Predict the 3D structure of the following.
Amino acid sequence: MKVLGIYGSPRKGGNSDLLLDAALEAAKESGAETKAIYARKLNISGCRECGGCDKTGECVVQDDMQEVYPLLKEADAIIASGPIFFYNFPAQLKALIDRTQAMWSDRLLKKGQGPSVPYESGTGYAIGVGATRGKNLFEGCELTCKYFYDAMDMEYGGGVFFRRVEEKGAVLENEDAMAQARELGRKIVAGE
């Protein structure tokens, strides 16, 4: 099994990074091959909505996203992780997500517009961390993940989310949060 972690935080070593580290470590210990993408290190422009991918299923924009597409395609499971900015993931991660429009176009070209067997490419998950305690704090990132993974023909398998975590490294003091992240990694490999 190949598990891809997408680090979406603009802050290196932040709370969402630490949680994803724990999840990927547990997945690796459970027998998975793991890889990582750091959105903050990539030069990815936003989707131009040019329609270039509609006929070929490939994005015409030549930037670092061209290196990301193969990693997304070969993954059996993906974990997107990030802090919550205005009830969704940061721009760095969102640009990567938006650019999977080409993968959606490719899916439509291969499967057609009619009914098809969905979710043949694996399962995607989310890790979210927010400073506030808002009731709807993670709804935006969960909805985004649902359609992000759908574009890649993947099922959304849920995730782990933590409120009231703000200071860099604060999540390390929350043993339950770290345990939940490790359990997520283990469950992904076990197929639970």
Remarks:
- Residues 96 and 129 are 19 Å apart (CA to CA).
